[in-house]
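haha ok so turns out i had the wrong file open the whole time. this is the CORRECT one, sorry everyone. sequence first:
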Amino acid sequence: MAELNVVELIVAKRDGGKLEPSQIRALISEYTNGSVPDYQMSAFLMAAFFRGLDETETFALTESMLESGIIVDLSGVPGTKVDKHSTGGVGDKISLILAPVVASCGVPVPMISGRGLGFTGGTLDKLESITGFRTSMSTDEYRRQVAEIGVVMIGQTDEIAPADRALYALRDVTGTVEFIPFIASSIMSKKLAEGIDALVLDVKCGRGAFMKEEPLARRLAETLVEIGDRFGKRTVAWMTRMDEPIGRAVGNWPEVVESLSCLRGEDVPDVTELVVTLSGEMIHLGGKAESAAEGAEKAAAALKSGQAYEKFLEIVRVQGGDVSLLHDPAVREGYEPAAVVKAVRSGFIAGIDALEVARTATAMGAGRLRKEDKVDPLAGITLQKKGGYAIRAGETLAHLFTTRTDELARFEAAVRGAFLVTDEPPVRSETVLLDRFEAGAWSGDAR
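then structure:
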């Protein structure tokens, strides 16, 4: 193959040209092996960001990133392997509940998740708030656990989509993160490398999401599903509301506590709805239900019966976590509110600013602004009231969990300010489900 002329590719894209798949493959391959320096790849990322990538280029980018590492072979594991991915939200603990629900219904779930960065929480950080829980394992261990217990929940290995890790780090420091072709290729290259047969996507839309505007969220969902379909993986996407935190807990251990409530059969607003809907899709795709609606019924039954809870305990036990912490999680040593936020006026809660809550939780130690930042597993916020409720002056709005007590006044003010209190009761949607996309078509209405 002729030597790659990176400058020509940069100029071509800068001037609005379309690159051939072979050119994109060569660029990604040589960047991954260190032949293309960061400064040239940065220039290409910015050129693509401004000039765009069409469907063929996006597919080629995804394929190149996927092929930069191994693709796990799970063909020896019986059943249709199905995973779920969320584009990230505030209080998004859905994976912790969904994976054991679906696995307990007989569908293998090979789940590779990420860490939180900025205002979004990460599944791995939540799992690692369970003392001893191991989120790193070899490919052989990963394959073996899926075969033995039907589910695994780990982080991205060094062998899976290494080009994505390198490009993500570069995008983060070059202002090229919020670009649909880059987001879609990053997500799908990792998911396709897991060894899955089908995928369910939760594309968040709203103030607490990366995609704050509905048209952009729809386009991202469409792009993700198109990529999945082109790779022969049946893919379904739900667009869901992300203006308020999901459920009541934000933070790693606080979200584990709330997840356990849901797993024990408690109806947790927003959380249970999302878990049952997304699990129903996965159970249907996995061949254990005739429809997504029947799958949702089976998911609800798994929560009510306790079989999903037992599967979660099995996951924690097999991956080295301290199961004893889960029996009465709210009384864990050190897990006590540092402050109680009170309402200053009576009225109705018209809404809660998810972004402000997330930023405050991060400042309290629950998240990270840089990948190398440490997180406090017990830090976070539990909301005692949600949007739509009446509130009286002096009533509790939230509990704050943090060791950064010298900043409590600032944290309290920020959380109180995240609550929009009005004199009149608000008109609120009864569902966080906005729309569903599959096989090139939107359903047009939420169920």
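The CA atoms of residues 99 and 109 lie 6 Å apart.
again sry for the mixup
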